[in-house]
């Protein structure tokens, strides 16, 4: 595709509320500019809220995605479009989640496990697109990645089929098969106010299992602790944040697991607040 056709595709996506970004050959984003090299600028991926990069260049991978036509048409981006090989987009920024199925076995698994939704053919498999956002996660099943918040997916057309609301079966993939939990060494008082309500859409057992899996996700993390804590908080709130079933005890369990991995109370509170803000709670 020419630079003009790539940019026209990006402008079309932006007009529909889908934030695009250019990709180099090999389906990789452009590296950060000299000012932002090694995240020296403190760019968005170093912050705790997913959002666009403020650099005028297409920097910080998924955070470069934007719906601002002035940015997409800017001189800095014009250079990138001339070097680009494809257009990608930030699914989470468009309120979407993409289940990336990389081979025939993964597609067969999805057809048996997940509700049907809009489907886009890829070079090796299919993208199943759901309406709703969640934490992104790689290798949730053999040949299956989930791309939503803080991730990008290649634009391969609108696809076919009716888009389905993001189901719990997909949300659960971000917490699939976590490492064995390590009990936190101490218990803290509840750091945030909870609502002593009842989960109206699931049984208490479902809630308890979800909190336990979230604890395991945090305690089993071997790196990127800040990001793991934020993604886990986001997953819990996306499922239970609106029904009033989370109590101080549940939140304290999550904070305790995070602190056992080295997070401070302030970091935990910031991550929780940012997750609430992201979900509009």
Describe the structure.
This protein has helices spanning 3-15, 69-72, 75-83, 104-113, 168-171, 204-219, 225-240, 248-260, 265-278; strands spanning 20-24, 28-29, 86-89, 96-101, 118-121, 126-131, 137-141, 144-147, 153-154, 164-165. The chain is built from nine helices and ten strands. With 281 residues, it is of the alpha+beta class. The longest helix is centred in the last third of the chain and has 16 residues, at 204-219. Strands 4, 5, 6, 7, 8 and 10 form a six-stranded mixed β-sheet that branches. It has a four-stranded antiparallel β-sheet with strand order 2-1-3-9. α1 crosses α3 (75-83), α6 runs parallel beside α8 (248-260) and α7 (225-240) packs across α9. A hairpin with a 2-residue loop joins β7 and β8 (144-147). The radius of gyration is 19 Å and the shape is globular. The model is unreliable at 176-196 (pLDDT under 50).
What is the fold's blueprint, element by element?
Layout: H1 3-15, E1 20-24, E2 28-29, H2 69-72, H3 75-83, E3 86-89, E4 96-101, H4 104-113, E5 118-121, E6 126-131, E7 137-141, E8 144-147, E9 153-154, E10 164-165, H5 168-171, H6 204-219, H7 225-240, H8 248-260, H9 265-278
Parallel strand pairs: 6-10
Antiparallel strand pairs: 1-2, 1-3, 3-9, 4-6, 4-8, 5-6, 7-8
Low-confidence stretches: 176-196
Radius of gyration using CA atoms only: 19 Å
Write down how many β-strands occur, each being a DSSP E stretch of 2 or more residues.
10
**Which sequence of SSEs, written as H and E, runs from N to C?**
HEEHHEEHEEEEEEHHHHH
Number of helices: 9
Shape: globular
β-strand percent reads: 5-15%
């Amino acid at each position: 595709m020419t630079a003009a056709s790539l940019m026209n595709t990006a402008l079309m996506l932006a007009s529909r509320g889908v934030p695009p970004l250019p990709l180099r050959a090999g389906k990789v984003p452009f590296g950060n500019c000299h000012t932002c090299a090694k995240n020296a600028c403190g760019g968005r991926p170093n912050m705790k809220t997913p959002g666009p990069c403020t650099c005028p260049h297409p920097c910080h991978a998924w955070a470069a995605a934007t719906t601002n036509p002035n940015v997409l048409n800017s001189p800095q981006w014009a250079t990138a479009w001339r070097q680009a090989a494809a257009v990608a987009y930030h699914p989470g920024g468009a309120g979407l989640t993409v289940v990336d199925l990389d081979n025939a076995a993964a597609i067969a698994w999805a057809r048996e496990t997940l509700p049907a939704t809009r489907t886009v053919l890829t070079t090796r498999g299919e993208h199943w697109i759901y309406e709703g956002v969640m934490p992104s996660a790689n290798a949730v099943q053999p040949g299956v990645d989930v791309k939503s918040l803080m991730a990008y997916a290649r634009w391969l057309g609108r696809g076919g089929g009716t888009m389905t609301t993001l189901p719990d079966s997909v949300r659960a993939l971000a917490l699939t098969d976590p490492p064995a939990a390590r009990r936190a060494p101490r218990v803290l008082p509840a750091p945030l106010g909870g609502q002593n309500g009842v989960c109206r859409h699931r049984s208490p057992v479902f809630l308890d299992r979800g909190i336990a899996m979230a604890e395991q996700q945090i305690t089993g993390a071997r790196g990127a602790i800040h990001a793991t804590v934020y993604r886990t908080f986001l997953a819990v709130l996306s499922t239970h944040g609106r029904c009033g079933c989370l109590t101080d005890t549940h939140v304290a369990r999550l904070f305790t697991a995070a602190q056992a991995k080295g997070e401070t109370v302030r970091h935990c509170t910031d991550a929780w607040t940012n997750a609430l803000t992201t979900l509009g709670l």
